[in-house]
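Quick entry between incubations.
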Amino acid sequence: MIGIIRSLGRWGLSTFERLGRGHLFLVQILAGIPGLFLRFSLVIQQLFSVGVLSVLIIAVSGLFVGMVLSLQGYYVLVDFGAEESLGVMVSLSLVRELGPVVSALLFAGRAGSALTAEVGLMKSTEQLSGMEMMAVDPMRRVIAPRFLAGFISMPLLAAMFSAVGIIGAFLVGHGLLGVDDGAFWSQMQAKTDWYDDILNGVIKSIVFGFVVTWIALYEGYDALPTSEGVGRATTRTVVHSAFAILGLDFVLTALMFGEG
Amino acid sequence: MPLIKIRDLHFSRGDRVIFEGVNIDIHRGKITAIMGPSGTGKTTLLRLIGGQLHPDKGTIEVDGQNVHQLSHSGLYALRKRMGMLFQSGALLTDLTVFENVAFPLREHTDLPESMIRDLVLMKLQAVGLRCARDLMPNELSGGMARRVALARAVTLDPMMIMYDEPFTGQDPISMGTLVNLIHRMNDAMGLTSIVVSHDVDEATEIADYVYLLSGGKVVSEGSPVDLKRSSSQWVKQFMQGLPDGPVPFHYPGVDFKEDMLNPEVSP
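Done. Structure below.
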């Protein structure tokens, strides 16, 4: 019994210690961001590897998610003679929920894991220590640009996911299932609200981008400098990011759409 | 006055004591070797001097400044005058050899590109790798990587340079090249060098003064000649590479006979 309490206490202490270190890490990142506006080329390089290289997986996934949504939605709506509302159903599903959430999950898997592995390997090969000894602060030179790039990329990728998803839904809905194209687009336009739907979705994706990039960079920076340590850190990034995305999605949805 | 003055240095990692009252002076313009068996904290000492680790007690002064009382910006300003050669080279793997050597110049100066090019090529010429400037770090041998790292470490013309196990894992030609380079650079650039190593022959060949560390303390110090003539059993064992002596061959623990006869003593 004492052993269980002791290990529980040890787990609690180490968890809070890690949380504390993670928050201090975030403060250091944020302190490094103002300086980046003088050297924005560092952010642009990272926007390419974090954002542009994630476009393919986001676009392809968005296309298929939209197509499946269209198929599933059509078979439900057609029973009520409401198949012309397919565009609205798909757009609200994507813009409010699936766009931010699924793209964030994919982002965590593609870019988050890559960030963790890259930073973890830089640590294990003493590149970060080497920078420190060259009087170059790795927080400002390595971590902050990657953080800003992730933060900027995520909402753009989520928007792309939703846009491609809607195109996929239209191709299936109109091309395969014969839904009227005028009704598809006009109902979508009429019922999708700029503030309530689109802006809230964008806010979600900004929050997810912030959290996923923070987790990914922290896990890499805090990884044990061994191949096993980096591997575990990469796994933790994907798992913790998924939990954070889904948990935060619930909280944000309750706050944004709870009253409606 | 020594360039680096270490006084009463205490440092532990968890329960493990690494240093217990170490005093070291590193004199200007000299090559000082810090030697000792693996795990005695030689690399840790370099990290303490560079301010990457904080001592539990004691002081480390570099050029009259207490490293661990400096502000963040003060420490970084001091590091610009320190060079460090890591055991792995610590080259930035996404940059070419040229860009690695140019890295400190790009970060800390506003020099025009033509001048950066000239400076980098001069440093690379000094280590014999001017024509390897377009290679990536993964295309270099271990010895070449260390020479590039050496060129990078001296790019900002530091006052001192710290070498962490520069000879480990090198073939005889690379080893000879590195020994020659360290010696030549120290003289030509008026550097102060600290060489952390357990390669007795190479380190004593270039060092002006040697500190031997063991068990968290300086067990002996002096010129390489003095140490080779030392009557201390420990110094003899280390300098001559004897397998047994004051540093035991066997990891300390239960007596062998007792261990064999009583299986319940340990699994």
